[in-house]
Structure formats: structure tokens, C-alpha cells
Design goal:
The structure holds two protein chains of two kinds.
Chain A lengths: L1 E6 L2 E6 L6 H7 L18 E4 L2 E4 L12 E3 L5 H14 L8 H14 L5 H8 L10 H13 L1
Helix pairs in contact in A: 2-3, 2-5
Chain B lengths: L11 H5 L6 H4 L5 E7 L5 E7 L1 H5 L3 E5 L30 E2 L5 E7 L2 H8 L3 E6 L36 E9 L2 H6 L3 E9 L11 E6 L5 E5 L4 H12 L6 E4 L16 H11 L3 E4 L2 H7 L5 E10 L5 E13 L5 H10 L10 E10 L13 H19 L3 H8 L8 H5 L16 H12 L1 H4 L2 E3 L4 E11 L9 E8 L5 E5 L8 H13 L6 E5 L16 H28 L4 E3 L3 E4 L4 E2 H10 L7 E7 L7 E11 L5 E11 L6 H20 L30 E5 L22 H13 L10 H10 L1
Parallel strand pairs in B: 1-12, 10-11, 14-15, 19-20, 26-27
Antiparallel strand pairs in B: 1-5, 2-4, 2-6, 3-5, 7-15, 8-13, 9-10, 9-12, 13-14, 16-17, 17-25, 18-19, 18-24, 21-22, 22-23, 25-26
Helix pairs in contact in B: 9-10, 10-19, 15-16, 16-17, 18-19
Classes of the chains: A alpha+beta, B alpha+beta.
The complex binds FE2/S2 (inorganic) cluster (FES).
Chain lengths: ~150, ~775
């Protein structure tokens, strides 16, 4: 079936299977920042923003996204690039596989949390797993980024 | 210029910004999808296998069983050659030896057709009784490698008829006699589980034929050159016909130091002429790649009343699962990277058997035996201290290794072979220990204190060492090429797993060549275009490949000076990076480069360097845990983890810190959360992130890492390794902390709240 999706500020007509997940639709379109990490919606690697809410694209039907605004790292270049400065400043993008999902989570967190402190940040980002960094450096980077904002 | 500076990773921004970088991002768009039919049984013989319906399915291009793939026996371990691991694996076999073993593989135009076809493969199995419990495996009626098909490349005690993949024993002095003369002898038995790596990118491989018909393999591997060698041998084609490329990979930790999907995709490509790719599911990664070796370790330690440790005996039983990748070498590291910590003993012995069982194979995992050995040794030291009534820190300080000392073990035990004698040329272990004690306020607060009538806190300590590469075996090499604007291409075999080794090599080249970092363009891990390197394992990259880059850069300076002499017409030139000076005038590097390629005395400047070490300078660290336990429920909270590390002079302090922080959390995961259970029939129960709990950020209260700078004369710019050591201390330190809080000794990992509660209530 053909649907129309608003991805990264432009409209796309895409052919999908009715049961297709957003993760596959985006990757098939060449948006490779969105990655798969598990088969049980538990890792947060595939996180994208839909109407400024963080969703796991591996468990979100593409058809549900019609009429909504989908954002990936490619669609928030300026903000992502600033977040990247802080993450790379701490060296926490180790294998980097979890980084785009984390950036999207930080992006929506900023819209959703009024006065983020370390506890609420940890809570918000709990679903974004990282096996390389041990998280501490991520938290250092995020705190610095939020201070600047 | 470059060294000892926290420069950001050269590829970091690109990764965060989601650039196509990993195997599946870069695999050809029209790749056939490859999937593997996995065994539902822990041990069975395939009596018949009918693929006709699967082959007829629309979109399916080929189906392979053991009948139509090469019938060769090999080891999948990406190690030195000849491998110190038994040859016991085939691409596909008539026998399946664990739940998840490969039965058949097939390729089709899309996932749907492959899924449809895979369900149509009809297999009749003769189910056999599996051996799941590794303590019952030796001389069990069930023999995992029943046929007479396995072999070892050299003597390693390989006895498949007894389910023994490998065994090893050594004794220095007479342990029995030494123990007899001790005032106090402590004996303890410790268990560690089969931890899963949980790389966020699952194992992925793609292959295609290039213009010249050569086989190109892109794969998430830690060892591209070993992959090329193993593929060539078993596909029956020359090494020269294969190119292996490692793009960015989403985590390794040892899990990708082995062949996994590479045979499946390459066989499909060779048969169809078409590009093919395989992406392991998360379940497949848990069940059908490999794990850390599960172990049982028996410790006997004897000491005099004054705290002089006189004898240590360590006896290991290691579970390698269905296949013996890294069986011998991991076993040896259990002793060789722990026992030298207490180097003043009169006698020390180490022995172990590695047994086959019908469970997921074990292989390399960060720490590689050292974390298992550390849990046993460092728990036992605390228990001994208690029996001696000496503070465990005081006992450690009295007996541990120091600068200028040695251990006979360095000479006796290597990895799969004899070791190399060496004297410790850098060691700040004592300072590391002091920093941890100070930060934890160990002497002020005491090892335990009550917070409320039900809640207690405890502090526990452990020390650790690791190696820096494998002496006389691990080789790394680098090539530098000058460009016409004065920049350099640095081509290295070293394999960056996300650890930042590309950046580290750029820093070393920049430092040596005295040019800014942005003049160094790094390209790594491509068997056609980069020189040989064993790959990223055994904590070798900075130490071994780092030297090769330094040497290549020094050779490049010689080349530049020679070229400048000709250009300037002088016999005396000085190089200081941007300018070459002489009595006959000066020339900038970029001017020289331009002349070299376009106008005068034209010549391409290229240099190379390769390096093999004769030592394996150990990094050291101390780790301390503070835990809080609610006695009513047994609930354990890790309040904080403090670590101080001596990894020599850090090339990149930020990256070193993240290496340690990340490794610590993996160690904490092993200590407290990551459980591995099999059903009686051999089904792995913890095969998803829902059932296998790696620490999330909620589990981290505070991880505090500091470095105690030392200078290792054998290392590049004073550096030692840092990739593995961080993982070693948490299991023992946390067990010691719990014991100090409650007087309850837990000897089996993972240490979960319910185990503490059980111990408290039903000891
Ligand atoms: S950086 Fe590797 S998983 Fe987060």
C-alpha cells in the first residue's frame, strides 16, 4: 500500500506492507541512522521522534505515522550536531551504534522535561541501552549540553 | 602534538550523526538475504533433511545443508596461526551439538521468502541425551564430539572421548609442602557464569564479487586478517582472491573475535554470483554466537600468622560449550593474569580442564579468563585475611607485586604456550589502592556500618592486572604515505571496535611526525589496502600497533630528510614537522611535497613499520565497591564503584576513561545482574534483553575512575593497555563488600538479592 509520510521536514510517498514497521520503512528509504538492536523493543537503538515524542521505530507501524511529523538525526542536523559536540567531547560515542537513538532521546527529552536533573534524565533515558560507555560519560555530556542550552 | 591529549575520536561526529558506517548500512542494496535454520535440540544426529519445498519457494535462490558445503574441520577462533584452539567445527555438520547450532542455511530475495522457505525444510533428528551440566561433563556417557573428527594443532591435552577440549597444569615450587608449613590455609570454591557480550550491533556480514571476480567480505569482525585466512582455507580458495573489510562495528568485547556469519554469506555469493548478507537476530546472537567461559575455580591459599602468603593453588573447570574456541588460552589466562599479583609465594600451582557440553559455545570475552580468576583469587584473599584477622588491604599490600619485581609465572605461562620472563618496569598498584581507599574513606568509615536497624553498608576491595598483547605472536603494522599537500595517509591493519584505536594511531603518528592531527588521514582494517595486523584482542592495539605506527612515522622522517637533501642540495637537514631546515636554505613540508610529485626529483614517499613485542607490560588497577543491603529483603544497591588504574601514560585520557567506565559496568553486570540459565533439555532461557539483564543507566549510582600516571618504557610513549583491565575487579570487590556488610560470603555469580536473602535466612 502507498502512504504519505512527513519525514525530516519533507513529504514522501512510500510503498509499504500493511504490517511494516517504521524502522524498516526508514532504512529502506536510505535513512541509515535508524538502526536495529534487538527483537523485543528493549534497547532504544531505533528511537526516533514522532510528533516530538520518542518512539521505538521497531515496534511502531509505519501506517500509524501518517499525518505525523517524523524526525531522525538527519532531520535535526543543527541540534544533533551540538549534542554530538558534547558526546564526542567526553568520548562516549564508542562503537557509536547507540548514539543516533540517544541523540533523538535527548532531543525529545528537552521538549518534555521542564527542569531536567540527573535523576529525571536517567529516568527518561533508561530505555536507551549502551554496552560500551558505562553511561557515566553520557551523563557528563548531557549535563554540560543542558547547561549550555 | 597528539599524545596524552583528549582529542575527540576522528570518526565520532560521523557516528553520532548517523552516517552509514556499519556492515548493514553499506552492504549492496540488492543483497540476497541469508538465514540459518537452527537446531531445536541440544544434541542430535540429522537422519534426513528435505529441502525440496524450500527450494521451490518463490524468491529462494539456494539452500545448503551439510551435504553441499565443504566438509572441512576448523576452529572459528580468530587467533594466531596455528591456532591454539582445537579443530572441532564444520560449516554444517550431520550432528548438531547445542540448541541453536546450524542445520542449514538459505538465501532469497527478501526476508519474507526466506522466512517462508525456512519453515518448509523438513529435518528428522535422532535425538540424543545432551550433557548440560559442565561439572558432570568429564567422562560422561554423552560424548559431545563422538566421531573421531576433531584434532588439535599442537599438544593441548585434547581428549574428545572424555569431553575434554583442552587441559593445562603447571607447578612452581612444591605447593603441597609449602601449604603444610603454613599457619592458616584457606580453601574455597567459586563459580562464574557464561556472560553474554551483548554488542548492540548483532553479528552481521555481507559479501559480493568485485569487477575482477574476487570475493569481497564486509563483516563486523575484530580480526579481518584471521577471517581472510580461515575463509580461504575452508572455502578452498587462495588468500589472494579474498578481500575482507571491517567497516565501523557496533561493539566487539571479544564477541567478534571469531567467524560467525562469514561462511554462510560467502558460500551463497560463490554459488549465485550475487551479493548476500546475513544479520543475526538478537536471539541468534545470544544463542548461537558465543559467551564467556563458565567456570568453577577451587582455591587453596596458605599463609603464616604474620600475613606472609606462602602458597597458592588454583584448579579450574571451564565450560567451552559445544565447540572449543579459545578453550586453552582462556583457561591459561585465568592463572597467568591473576597469580603474578602475589609474586612472593614460595610455591604456586595452576591446573584446569576445559570440558565440552551441549550448550552455546564459549569464546573470547574481554577479561578472557582474568575476570573469572580475579573473582576467585580476590575473594579468597579476603577470606584468608578474615581467618588471619588481618585487614584485607594490609594483607594485599604485604604480598602484592611492585616495580622492579618479577614472577616466575611470566616465564612459565603464556597464552597456549610457554611465557616470557619479564621484570615489571612500571607499577603504581600501591598508589591505585591508596586512591581507592581514600575516596571510599575506607579507614575512616570502616569496612561496614549500619545505616538503620535494617540497612547496612559495606566496602570491598579487589586488585587486578592484565597484559598488553601476546609477546612474540601479536604483530601489528602500519604504512604512511606522503601526499602532495604535506598530509599523510596512515594505513593500519589495527581494528577499531569503537575503542578509538584509529584516533590513537593518528595521535601517535601526529606526535612522531610533529604535524597536526588533521594532517593524518587514517584508513584501517581492509586486507587489500592495509598491512597485516592480528586484530583487536588481548589488549594489544595501543601497545603493539601503536609501536608500528611510531616506527612507520620515524621511517617517514628519514625519507623526508633524504628527499629534502636532494631538493636543498645539502647534506645536513633538520626536520621539525612543518619546516625542513639546512645550511643551504629551508623548505616547508608542503612545498617539498608539491615538488616531489610535480616538478623536481619526483618520488612517492612511503614508509612502513611493524612491531612484535617481547614483553606484555601489565596494566594494574584497584577497584572498590560500596554496597547497601536491606537485610529484610536482601536487596543490594551498589552505592558507588571507585577505580584507580595504572595503564602507563594515557595516549588519550578521555578515551581511556570511557574504556574503564564501560568495562567496569560490564563487570558490574556480570557480578550482579547477568544470569544464564538452561532448561534440562538445553534451551537457553536468557536469550533476549527481556530475560538477560544488562545494566541500564538506572543501575549506575556513581562510577569514579581515576588514573595513576606511570611511564612504561616498553610501551609507545609510555603507554600500556587499558581495554580489558577495567572489567576484572567488580565481581570480587562486590562480593567482598557484601561480606563486609553482612558477614555473608557469596561465591557464585551473579550475586542477586534473592541469593543474599537465602544466605541470610537459610544459610
Ligand atoms: S557506544 Fe557502543 S553501545 Fe553505546
Amino acid at each position: 500500500m502507498e502512504i504519505t509520510l512527513n519525514i525530516n521536514h519533507s513529504m514522501h510517498h512510500v510503498l509499504i506492507r500493511p504490517d511494516e514497521f517504521l524502522l524498516d520503512t526508514l532504512r529502506n528509504m536510505g535513512i541509515k541512522s535508524v538502526k536495529k538492536g534487538c527483537d523485543t523493543s528493549s534497547c532504544g537503538i531505533c528511537a526516533v521522534s514522532v510528533d516530538n515524542k520518542l518512539v521505538r521505530s521497531c515496534a511502531y507501524y509505519s501506517i500509524r505515522a501518517e499525518g505525523k511529523e517524523i524526525l531522525t538525526v538527519e532531520g535535526i542536523r543543527e541540534e544533533a550536531s551540538l549534542i554530538a559536540e558534547f558526546l564526542t567531547g567526553e568520548g562516549v560515542e564508542q562503537c557509536g551504534y547507540c548514539s543516533p537513538g540517544l541523540v533523538m532521546a535527548i532531543y525529545t527529552m528537552k521538549h518534555e522535561l521542564d527542569e531536567p536533573d540527573i535523576e529525571s534524565i536517567k529516568h527518561y533515558l533508561a530505555g536507551n541501552l549502551c554496552r560500551c560507555s558505562g553511561y557515566e560519560g553520557q551523563h557528563r555530556a548531557i549535563m554540560k549540553y543542558l547547561e549550555v542550552k | 602534538m597528539g599524545v596524552n591529549q583528549s582529542v575527540p575520536k576522528i570518526d565520532g561526529k560521523g557516528l553520532v550523526m548517523g552516517k552509514a558506517a556499519y556492515t548493514d548500512d553499506l552492504a549492496p542494496e540488492n543483497s540476497l538475504i541469508v538465514k540459518v535454520l537452527r537446531s531445536p535440540h541440544a544434541y542430535a544426529e540429522i537422519m534426513s533433511i528435505d529441502t525440496s519445498e524450500a527450494e521451490k519457494t518463490e524468491g529462494i535462490r539456494c539452500v545448503f545443508t551439510y551435504k553441499n558445503v565443504p566438509d572441512k574441520i576448523f576452529s572459528r577462533a580468530g587467533q594466531g596461526y596455528p591456532e591454539p584452539s582445537p579443530y572441532d567445527k564444520k560449516i554444517l555438520d550431520r550432528f548438531v551439538r547445542y540448541v541453536g547450532d546450524a542445520v542449514a542455511f538459505l538465501a532469497g530475495v527478501d526476508e519474507e521468502s526466506v522466512d517462508e522457505a525456512i519453515a518448509k525444510i523438513k529435518v528428522t533428528y535422532r535425538i540424543m541425551t545432551p550433557i548440560i551440566d559442565f561439572e558432570k561433563a568429564k567422562d560422561s556417557k554423552t560424548i559431545v564430539h563422538d566421531e573421531d573428527h576433531t584434532r588439535s594443532m599442537f599438544e593441548m591435552g585434547h581428549e574428545p572421548s572424555r569431553n575434554i577440549a583442552a587441559r593445562y597444569a603447571m607447578e612452581i615450587g612444591n605447593v603441597k609442602e609449602a601449604l603444610k608449613s603454613c599457619d592458616i590455609v584457606h580453601e574455597g570454591r567459586y563459580y562464574t557464569q557464561a556472560q553474554a557480550h551483548c554488542t548492540m550491533e548483532t553479528h552481521t556480514a555481507a559479501s559480493w564479487l568485485d569487477l575482477q571476480g574476487r570475493l569481497v567480505v564486509m563483516t563486523s569482525t575484530q580480526t579481518p586478517f584471521h577471517v581472510r585466512r580461515i575463509l580461504a582455507k575452508n572455502l578452498g580458495m587462495p588468500i589472494s582472491n579474498i578481500r575482507v573489510i571491517k567497516p565501523r562495528i557496533g561493539g566487539g568485547y571479544g564477541g567478534k573475535q571469531c567467524i560467525h556469519g562469514e561462511f554462510f554469506v560467502t558460500w551463497v555469493t560463490l554459488h549465485t554470483g550475487l551479493p548476500a548478507k546475513i544479520i543475526y537476530s538478537r536471539k541468534e546472537t545470544f544463542q548461537s554466537t558465543y559467551t564467556r567461559h563458565q567456570m568453577r575455580i577451587d582455591m587453596t591459599i596458605g599463609a603464616m600468622k604474620d600475613g606472609t602468603i606462602k602458597a597458592i593453588n588454583m584448579e579450574v573447570l571451564s565450560n567451552t560449550g559445544a565447540y572449543g574456541e579459545h578453550a586453552l588460552t582462556v583457561l591459561m589466562v585465568v592463572g597467568s593474569k591473576t597469580l603474578p599479583l602475589y609474586n612472593k609465594v614460595e610455591a604456586v600451582a595452576f591446573s584446569g580442564d576445559v570440558v565440552y557440553t551441549n550448550t552455546t559455545p564459549a569464546g573470547a570475552y574481554r577479561g578472557y579468563g582474568a575476570i573469572q580468576g580475579n573473582f576467585a583469587l580476590e575473594s579468597a584473599i579476603d577470606e584468608l585475611a578474615e581467618k588471619l584477622d588481618i585487614d584485607p588491604v594490609v594483607l594485599r599490600k604485604k604480598n602484592m607485586i611492585h616495580l622492579g619485581e618479577t614472577s616466575k609465572i611470566f616465564e612459565v605461562m603464556g597464552e597456549g604456550q610457554e611465557g616470557t620472563p619479564m621484570t615489571i618496569e612500571s607499577c603504581e598498584l600501591e598508589k591505585c589502592l591508596d586512591i581507592c581507599l581514600e575516596k571510599l574513606e575506607y579507614f575512616e568509615k570502616g569496612k561496614s556500618r549500619e545505616i538503620s536497624p535494617h540497612v547496612v553498608r559495606g566496602i570491598g576491595i579487589a586488585i587486578a592486572m592484565q597484559g598488553s598483547g601476546i609477546p612474540h605472536i601479536d604483530m601489528g603494522s602500519s604504512i604512511l604515505k606522503l601526499n602532495d599537500d604535506g598530509s599523510f595517509n596512515l594505513m593500519i591493519g589495527a581494528t577499531d571496535l569503537g575503542t578509538g584505536s584509529d584516533t590513537i594511531m593518528a595521535q601517535i603518528a601526529s606526535e612522531t611526525l610533529k604535524v597536526p592531527m588533521d594532517k593524518i588521514i587514517v584508513y584501517s582494517s581492509d586486507t587489500d589496502l592495509t598491512p597485516f595486523d592480528v586484530g583487536a584482542y588481548a589488549s594489544s592495539t595501543t601497545f603493539i600497533s601503536g609501536h608500528s605506527t611510531r616506527i612507520a612515522a620515524e621511517n617517514m622522517i628519514k625519507e623526508i630528510k633524504e628527499a629534502a637533501k636532494l631538493q636543498l642540495g645539502s647534506n645536513q637537514v633538520e626536520y621539525d614537522g612543518m619546516i625542513i631546515t639546512s645550511d643551504k636554505g629551508d623548505i616547508s613540508l608542503s612545498e617539498l611535497a608539491e615538488k616531489l610529485y610535480y616538478s623536481e626529483h619526483q618520488k612517492q614517499l612511503v614508509s612502513s613499520g611493524s612491531y612484535v613485542s617481547s614483553t606484555t607490560a601489565p596494566p594494574y588497577m584497584a577497584g572498590g565497591a560500596e554496597v547497601e543491603i536491606d537485610k529484610r529483603t536482601g536487596q543490594i544497591k551498589l552505592i558507588r564503584y571507585v577505580a584507580a588504574v595504572d595503564c602507563g601514560t594515557t595516549i588519550n585520557p578521555n578515551l581511556a576513561k570511557i574504556q574503564v567506565e564501560g568495562a567496569l559496568l560490564q563487570g558490574i553486570g556480570m557480578a550482579m545482574y547477568e544470569d544464564v540459565n538452561y532448561s534440562d533439555s538445553g534451551q537457553l532461557i536468557n536469550n533476549s534483553f527481556l530475560k538477560y539483564n544488562i545494566p541500564t543507566r538506572m543501575e549506575v549510582e556513581s562510577i569514579d575512575v581515576s588514573f595513576v600516571e606511570s611511564y612504561e618504557p616498553q610501551g609507545p610513549f609510555g603507554a600500556k593497555s587499558v581495554g580489558e583491565i577495567g572489567i576484572d575487579t567488580p565481581p570480587a570487590a562486590i562480593a567482598n563488600a557484601i561480606n563486609n556488610a553482612l558477614g555473608v560470603r557469596i561465591t557464585r555469580l551473579p550475586i542477586k538479592s534473592e541469593n543474599v536473602w537465602m544466605k541470610l535466612n537459610h544459610n
